[in-house]
Amino acid sequence: MQRLKLFIPLLVFVALAAMFFGVERRVQRGEYAPTDLPSALLNQPLPDFSLPALDDGRILTKSDIQGEWFLLNVWATWCPTCHYEHPFLIKLAERGVKIYSVDYKDTADASRRWLVEKGNPYVATLFDAAGDFGLDLGVTGAPETYLVDATGVVRFRYQGALDQRVWDREFAPLIDSLALIPVSAEVSQ
C-alpha cells in the first residue's frame, strides 16, 4: 500500500497533462480561445463615469464622448502588452479611427511621459487611478478594447493586444456589419 502512494503524484501529473493537452487541441482547432471572455456589457450601455482627462484634468462623462462610434482602449504604462499594441493604435488613429482610452491603475506623470514619448493616438484619455471605472467595465487586465456605437452601447470587447490580424478578424467585419463606417481591411504599415 505504501508503494502505491508513491504513484499518486505521477497519476495527478498525467491527469493534468491530459487536460492541458485537450485544451491545446481545442485551441488549435479554433474551438476555444482563451481571450474569449464573456462581457456583461455586450449590447449594454457603457457605464456612467465622471473622470478627469489625463492631459488637462477636465472632467469627462459618457455624454462627452458619445455621438459616433469609437474604440475605448484600456491601457497602463506598467502593462508590457500595451507597449506592443501602442504602435498599431497610432496607425488606426492616423486612418481616422476614433479612440478614447482609460489609463487604468496608473500614475499620471508616467502616463503623460508615455504619450509624449510614444505618441498619442487618443482623442482623450480618462484617468482611472483607482480602477473604479475599470471595475464597472469588467476589466480583467490590460489591454482591453471595447467597440462602442454612436448611442453609447458596447458592441464588442477584446482582451489582449490589437494588431492587424486581430483588427482584420474581429473588429473590421463587426464595424462593417454594424454599418458604422466602411473600414479598410489593411491599416497601412
From TrEMBL:
Q: CDD domains given for it?
A: TlpA_like_DsbE
Q: Does the keyword Nucleus apply?
A: no
Subcellular location per UniProt equals: Cell inner membrane
Superkingdom, according to UniProt? Bacteria
Q: Which Pfam families match?
A: Redoxin (PF08534)
* Coiled-coil region: none
The yes or no answer to whether the keyword Metal-binding is present is no
Protein topology in the membrane: Single-pass membrane protein
Ranges for the Thioredoxin domain?
Answer: 40-180
Entry keywords, A to Z: Cytochrome c-type biogenesis, Disulfide bond, Redox-active center
Q: Which InterPro entries match?
A: Periplasmic_diS_OxRdtase_DsbE (IPR004799), Redoxin (IPR013740), Thioredoxin-like_sf (IPR036249), Thioredoxin_CS (IPR017937), Thioredoxin_domain (IPR013766), Thioredoxin_ResA/DsbE_sf (IPR050553)
What family is it from? Belongs to the thioredoxin family. DsbE subfamily.
Give the protein name, as stated in the record. Thiol:disulfide interchange protein DsbE
Whichever gene encodes this chain, its name is dsbE
